[in-house]
Amino acid sequence: MTSPAHLKIRNVTRRFNVNGTALTALDDVSLDIKAGEFVTIVGASGCGKSTLLRLGAGLDVEHDGVIEHGGRRVDGPSLDRGIVFQEPRLFPWLTVERNVSLGLENAAFSKAEKRELVSEQIALVGLSGFEKAYPHQLSGGMAQRAGIARGLVNRPDVLFLDEPFGALDAITKARLQGELQQIWAAEKITMVLVTHDVDEAVYLGDRVVIMSPRPGRIRQIVPVDLPHPRERTSPELAAIRNGVLDILNGTTGEAPKPVTRPSAARRPAASANPIHAAHRTKPARPAFSTTEI
């Protein structure tokens, strides 16, 4: 029996009025996301990815159709839904500790509980020892970790991430992608991440939602049936990535199909598009790094 949707998006259309001209950003979008699932949304700039994320988080409610979270209609922001933006948006006059605690401003916890929650999330993102640091004393990667901690501190059911690593260098980006994967595994919450980076979408997501250019529609949903943590250089992951790129580039009308992995004795070269059914296992990753990146 299929699990009920934790986040349900039904026939959602979002229009804007730009200089007197009606602009359709999203057109009749429907999507079900299960509890604990990691869904990534990918597409070209202007396809409505971030608009869909803001609607799901309740930051924008001007739309046709229905959005439900946990069976309740989303009609505004909620502590049950956290969000992380591309820029950390930390207040420069507040320490890391105080910036993270802002996520609990309206939460019904005692002062002691809030202190404990803040301490736990700072440790989870690898910032222990930097509680009293100010944003200008942090690297870009560390500042983004603080932003993630703020999004997680009130233990939301769903965490929305709007291109959280888009402004970071390649090395820092790869490090934080791995750490986000570990956080997701540890917290077991639903995550929805918007990105224009296909490698990131395939590496992190259980499913990759591919958006078509404006007006934004869901063109296709590609499952990534590989265990976590994943190996970036695995042929299985590369095959799925190539399939997603083909769909985005319009070179194929179908999702990449799984193929049977040939025996080691005679294994031809992998094709560009198939999703490999074989799963790999590897030792658990080490604890979160506190190295400044």
TrEMBL record:
InterPro entries named in the record: AAA+_ATPase, ABC_transporter-like_ATP-bd, ABC_transporter-like_CS, ABC_transporter_ATP-bind, P-loop_NTPase
Leader sequence segment: none
The entry's keywords: ATP-binding, Nucleotide-binding, Transport
One Pfam assignment: ABC_tran
Region of interest (Disordered), ranges: 251-293
PROSITE patterns in alphabetical order: ABC_TRANSPORTER_1, ABC_TRANSPORTER_2
Entry keyword annotation includes Flavoprotein: no
Domain ABC transporter: start-end pairs: 7-240
PANTHER family: ALIPHATIC SULFONATES IMPORT ATP-BINDING PROTEIN SSUB, TAURINE IMPORT ATP-BINDING PROTEIN-RELATED
Family in the record: Belongs to the ABC transporter superfamily.
Protein name: Sulfonate ABC transporter ATP-binding protein
Annotated organism of origin: Phyllobacterium myrsinacearum
